[in-house]
Amino acid sequence: MHISNAGRWSLAALVVVIALVVAIWPRGSSDDSGTRSYADYVSQGTTPAPERAPGETDQSLAGARDRAALTACPAPAAGTTPAGPLAGITLACLADGRRIDVGAALAGRPALVNLWAYWCGPCAKELPALDEYARRAGDKVTVLTVHQDPKEGNALSALTDYGVHLPGVQDGSGRVAAAVGAPNVLPVTALIRADGTVAAVLPQPFDSADQIADMVHDKLGVVS
């Protein structure tokens, strides 16, 4: 069968259009839960992503926890009452797997809550700066990381590679992000006042401890 020049051009154009459609068509994945927030699932009326990936247990993660050697999660201060959007949110501590009430753990002291995930490139650069800032701030500001992907084992391995020992919690379902109204990007830093209210939500990476200290001073009034 003979195809005219016009037919050939039409066929070529059709192939290009099909290729473009394939390139931009949204792709589903059997493992996309780590890139969707708790708020996404709620808005769509679907079951939220699991807090931790299926098959991961405290026993299976024990070796990774030992290698990461993370600082224990903060304990509730005596005489404080948890308040604000984080009160009542219970999550597993990355250091040892025990569950903590995030709002209670942060109550009574200004806090910096950092949302991240093991696959986030800017997070890998920011976390060491946060670690340095936390050492500088000492007891003035509580620094807590929140891992936003169900794969807790990958989080522990990443922190080991980064040499970061900050206290953190596992939150694959994105409950903290939803509570503070964080956008669906990473990293995000939420600054929490001593009374539990949210002072700022900053969807941007920070490059140095000095930059973080300036931001905390500006938003929380704490010099560190």
From TrEMBL:
Gene Ontology CC entries for this record: cell envelope
Subcellular location: Cell envelope
Superkingdom as given in the UniProt entry: Bacteria
Main location: other
InterPro entries for the chain: Redoxin (IPR013740), Thioredoxin-like_sf (IPR036249), Thioredoxin_CS (IPR017937), Thioredoxin_domain (IPR013766), Thioredoxin_ResA/DsbE_sf (IPR050553)
Region feature (Disordered): 29-61
GO biological process, one term: cytochrome complex assembly
Keywords: Cytochrome c-type biogenesis, Disulfide bond, Redox-active center, Signal-anchor, Transmembrane
UniProt keyword annotation of RNA-binding present: no
PROSITE patterns: THIOREDOXIN_1 (PS00194), THIOREDOXIN_2 (PS51352)
Domain called Thioredoxin: residue spans: 67-221
Single GO MF annotation: oxidoreductase activity
Protein name: TlpA family protein disulfide reductase
Species this chain originates from: Rhodococcus spelaei
Lineage start: Bacteria, Bacillati, Actinomycetota, Actinomycetes, Mycobacteriales
